[in-house]
Structures
1.
Amino acid sequence: MINIHSWLLLMFVFFSCSIPEKEHENPTVQLKAENYIPEIADKLNEISGLMIYNKHFWGFNDSGGKNELYGFNKSGQIIYEIELDNAQNEDWESITQSEENIFIGDFGNNMGNRNNLLIYRIDKKDLSEKAEQKIDTKEIKLKYALQDNFSYLKKTTPYDCEAMVAFKNKLYLFSKNWRDETTWQYKVPTKKGDYEITPTDTFNVKCLVTGADISPDNKTLALVGYENYRSFIWLFSDFPGDRFFEGKSQHIKLEGIDGAQTEGICFLSNDSILVSCEKTQSYNQQVFLFDLNKLSDGTH
């Protein structure tokens, strides 16, 4: 007999597939990468997640890295090393912030078999100007309400996530859906606790989503991802409330960085975006700039 979670999943997939695919209002446009931070210190060679806070850039290494958050400057030099007390870096993938807190998502799940997904919450008031420090964290524990199979599902699971934003006192997660290259949106409270989460929306991004950010004016959501070694950004604007996918959408091919493993994204301003990539055979760990005013069709 099928259990309730499996039934709910089937219903969600059925209705998602039954809805006609929303056509984005503009065709795919191109935006050329500009060098911004050509090389970051080797200690941060697997940078995953990117954020700007207190006039510095912040990131961390992903799966298997230390439980440390690094602050670096425009020259790529690490200025701060923040150890998260009682935390483990199983697969840190995303970072975002509210006015009072920083959130780090330990929810990377390429194999689909994790049952210890969580988000670490840091209080900004606990951060000092010390170059090296250790700070306390609060845990926001997650479980996908629709998932009842935790067997090995390499590159086929819909329960992987690398993208998160803080928006209007909630956290929003966007899945890296290996199964069909869509993304599912989830909403999570910012308070410490244990939460079962269900999808609140879905969008056919046609790529694997690896990062997300909201513009400083809270009017544009950006998702970064890649498909077949090519990187893309999706922009969503003029959305009602937190229904990001119901607004205007724009699909942008990132020119000049084919083969880069783009992992982090953050707005430098309302009209410019930074994208980080980790070290590979083709690229150093670095940050690229994309000026939205230079879109090839001039729509932004």
2.
Amino acid sequence: MTDPTFPVPRSDAGNVARPNPAFALLSILGTTLLPVFVTLFGLAALTFFIGRMLPIDPVASILGDNATQEAYEKMSRALGMDKPLWYQFGVYVKGILSLDFGDALTTGKPVMEDIARVFPATIELATLAIVIGTGLGIPAGVLSAMYRNSWLDNAIRFTGLIGYSAPNFWLGLMGLVLFYATLGWIGGPGRIDFIYEFDLEPVTGFHLIDSALAGNWEIFGNVFGHIILPASILGFGALAYISRMTRSFMIEQLAQEYIVTARVKGLSWARTVWVHAFRNVAVQVLTVVALSYAFLLEGAVLTETVFAWPGFGRYLTNALLVGDMNAVVGCSLLVGVIFVTLNLICDLLYRVFDPRTR
């Protein structure tokens, strides 16, 4: 019989304290969003102060070299250039928090208005490019890993090497000479022929979508004829990177023991690769695709210049050439937001699909 003066030992395994859901949510938000804000603030500060140290005078860029001293000083006060640098940065940060990046010196319009005008063209171009790069790059990478060191593997790797090595502007010029000037298969530079430009009512800012919504397939064909070559050139570069990374991921997976087990059980080689091995690298491949898309959104400068594409990269280049720091900082922050957002999405997908990262 148990002595009542001594407590009976019992297990507390079923009474493990559970974390407070609200505290857990705040912890996740703190560890996720705080680095995002710190990164964006650091990017804004770095871009702002580097812009102020460049040997480019924004006042002279506006007024020209023949401006009088009185006009120069008046414009300098209007831009706040006569204030201390820390004060200018504080004013700028205050404007950023209200999504006010100031007026662009090149257009005289708010920077956000300019970005909203040119960014849809780049999104449309980069989206079609990443569809081409992903649709061809992932199967190419998987096939290259399946038939490693075969003629197919060598052909895919050689094609990827060309995609890495050939400059986009050279491919663009050669493509225009061959497919536009010689064969006449595609449209020329720009997003749309001039005769159709005023017939297309802007709804979303994406010409392919707007022409499809209007049911005007003649304009849709014209827009597609203009976008297919620059998108293919950008997609070729993305294809090279995506196929190479997919091949590396798949080779590592195909060397695992579960692949041998699946083959011993009688599964076909194709089913083993696509159903079992590829599923384990899908999130990694998705990360590569997301980063490739981010690079396409901000790195299509040369392609947009060659094809006279009125997009984000061309706008940023023109702003840099004239020292329009309001536009440069605004565009730089947008690029930072794109990369941070896509990285955050990839991190969340890792947590969802890979329990080991939770």
3.
Amino acid sequence: MQISRPYLMFLGDVPDTLAAKTAYGIVDWRRDWCLGQLRLPGCKADLGLPDITVEEAAAQGAKTMIVGIVNAGGVLNEAWVPSILKALECGMDVASGLHIRLGSDPRIAAAAAEHGRQLFDVRQSDQRFATGKGVKRTGLRLLTVGTDCSVGKKYTALALEREMTARGLDAEFKATGQTGVFISGRGVAIDAVVADFISGAVEWISPDAAPDHWDLVEGQGSLFHPSFAGVTLGLLHGAQPDAFVVCHEPTRTNMRGVRHPLPTIAEVIDLTVRCGRLTNPAIRPVGIAVNTQALAEDEAKTYLAKVAAEHDLPATDPIRFGVGPIVDRLEAEFPRARAAS
């Protein structure tokens, strides 16, 4: 899958920023690939990019319109179809992270064929996966896990990759969601894989590696989330992580989209270790990544110090303060990786 850039980021009429997290992720990590944003009336998200029309984007050289939207069920909203058709008409490809294939709409399929353009469904894969085998693989793996969905698991893994490679460690981000695939250009959207093959798909994206190589596997969902725990568990078993980082957003009380209360960080650590031991008995926590965006800086620092003391683990906000303390812990816990640098 080769998605041409630069991009026009399509936000549609999303009701909040979390509903556009795919677009935000791409802009946060690949801003230089993005020419502008297209928003429909009622859109409540803003990427900080110039607002441009499809025609303006095409004139500026945009190659692909990215449908950067996440919604319940990954459905294609009827209100978005005219913009998608206009992009195809203006000579752009269209890429989407929705569950619904773009080409399942006959109007979009016909327009793509008529104008000779490509449709990319990042959540769909033609790769066939085996069931997971649970056999220990060479190399080292870290998985980001969460107290909820949309708490920063992808950002934490990407921040770890940046910091670890800057220190000379052999580390690579492994995408398991549509935004991560857009950012890295590779990976598998795990939540679109048939349940029996989730752990096998993770084994496929993180195969045997050199003894000191780190695969930083992007987490999905939460073991405590009634909607997504099955995906999370399959990912945990397939990743066989040697280490994991717990991701958390401190202002939430209920998990996103349901009425269930948020688990504690301690509960997540305990259940992740108990479940993870099935495929890696040596699994251990190495840090806590907290999204402190809603807290003032002094309040955030106080909260992080409290969390670190409670769990005897480094705690940081990967975007606000960096992941240096977590990488320090990794280098101390895994001397083979430190020697490789």
